[in-house]
Amino acid sequence: MQRLSNLSQYIFICLLVATISSCGFQLRGTQTENAQQLPQALQTIYLSGNDQFGSFLKTLRKAFELQGTHIENQSSNTPYQLDIIDERYTRRTISVTSGAKVAEYELRVEIEYALKDQTGRTLIGPDRIFSEKVYLFNKNLVLGKSEEETMIQHEMQQELANRLINRLKIQINVIDRAESNSASEASNVRSKCC
After folding, report:
1. Which helix (H) or strand (E) holds 111?
2. Domain residues of the chain, as ranges?
3. Pick from 81, 63, 85: which is nearest to 72 by CA?
4. What is the Cα–Cα distance from 122 to 125, expressed in whole angstroms?
5. For residues 172 and 159, what is the distance between their CA atoms, to the nearest angstrom?
6. Please, what's the largest Cα pairwise distance for the chain?
7. CATH class belonging to 28-185
């Protein structure tokens, strides 16, 4: 009887794992598929910003590394340089209780960036991306809410870092296609005239 129970538990666990993996479930932060989709030019990049040790730049570095990108220490070693021009964190009151106490806050993280080539020519930007989240505030749990706000800001930074990388993938592919098209058109013109 005990053996039958263990067998049914084993079968249940196997079916559960198969179901979860077949529906596309993926642990948060695992980006192995995206690493293969990176354009060749994004395999190495130089990151710069006003605050080299700021929390967003650290998050962005980590997100690039999870994608398989090598972060260089000098801009001359890479085809592209990503400048984080500005990062802004704001919090505003969204709603109040009947006693005129804050009930909800909205957090906003806004990042301004520009992408430059090896010569320093700006290819993209300056451009902005942002994320907004609303959370409930309880004045009786101030310490816990402060930690929650910090955690939400960190999640927003991770979201923005991944969105920025995805945006760069698309924009760099467009730039590469435009450059290859103009090179082939120039080649066609040379072959026709000469």
Report:
1. strand 102-117
2. 28-185
3. 81
4. 7
5. 20
6. 89
7. alpha beta
What is the secondary structure of 126-166 as a DSSP string?
Answer: EEEEEEEEEEE--GGGHHHHHHHHHHHHHHHHHHHHHHHHH
Partners of 47 in the β-ladder: 82
Instruction: Tell me which amino acid residue 25 is.
Output: F
Q: Which amino acid is at 73?
A: N
**CA neighbor of 168 nearest in space, from 27, 45, 68:** 45
pLDDT digit string, tens, across residues 116-159:
988 888 988 899 999 999 988 777 666 666 788 889 999 999 99
CA 148 to chain centre: 21
Rounded to two decimals, the pTM is 0.69
Phi and psi (nearest 5°) for 30?
Answer: -90, 120
Q: How many CA atoms lie within 13 A of 146 on its CB side?
A: 5
